[in-house]
Write a structure and sequence with these properties.
CATH class of the largest domain: Alpha Beta
CATH architecture of the largest domain: 3-Layer(aba) Sandwich
Number of helices: 16
Strand content: 15-25%
Number of strands: 10
Shape: globular
CATH superfamily of the largest domain: Periplasmic binding protein-like II
Number of domains: 2
CATH topology of the largest domain: D-Maltodextrin-Binding Protein, domain 2
Distance between the termini: 44 Å
Helix content: 40-55%
Structural class: alpha/beta
Amino acid sequence: MKRRIFLSLLLAAALVTTAVLAGCGKGDSEKVKIRIGEVTRSLFYAPEYVAMAKGFFEEEGLEVELTTTPGGDKTMTALLSNVIDVALVGSETSIYVHQQGSDDPIINFAQVTQTDGTFLVAREADDGFDWNALKGSVFLGQRKGGMPQMAGEFALKKKGIDPQADLELIQNVDFANIAAAFASGTGDYVQLFEPTASIFEKEGKGRVVASFGTESGHLPYTVFMAKQSFINKNEKTVQAFTNAVHKAQLWVDSNNAEAIADAVLPYFENVDLDILISSIDRYKQQGSFATDPIIDEAEWNNLLDVMTTAGELENRTEHSEIVNTSFAEKAIEALK
């Protein structure tokens, strides 16, 4: 799906988003306040919650206000309309905006996740899973144009499966309702994030048989980004922010799933501890959490390949156009 009207839709929604998210309180005058909008609340973003729980943002003189703005369009709308200062969302959204033309581009400056975060869940257990089993099946996928869908289709094509011809692909279910639709009987296979995948296994509703993150390779999947104008006016703040993110990445990399689950538990009070642990461990084992904030060019080019394969990229937006690695590089040097 081409994104010719992506920016206009975002701007049209800005007033609504502002009304929903406005009314923020004043922060500690001794700290610089920074407003983050995350695209969803997910264990996939564990380093973000670790940075908050362990006080790494505070150590850098920052007071963070975190808001969940469900969906890439809503998150980007909030960023474009200055409701938030920094967005945690997929890099593809910055590309869609850039391709509409902008005097104030969205700049990717600190990577959080480096693989897709979804898993292939089968309704029936299959110890000898073969990707060819998907042929002729009903596959409950993700929203067209989003990174989960694009990475999923990229992986399927690598396995010799044409998503449009070899299976019945369902993509008209809202993200929030995909798990419920599968649980109620829709589809033979479904593409799910954690902790939902682990919850389904525990409840006997399905079984994880493959990882789209493993199959689609390294990508700048979820990234902290901000408007160029914000970065220009707040370089010290962006640097402090990136330093805190890298502190959290190092902590996550050096601790086990149990310790990480304990740290992020306040942000997932409705999820059982054993599910938190198994979900985080699954992400750690496949290397989903970036160990440094650099968005490298090879990962960026893989992202462009994934988007091109999905038919969602009109022109390649090169790494140098909307990626700034200087803050990440300085953070790494400062924390050696």
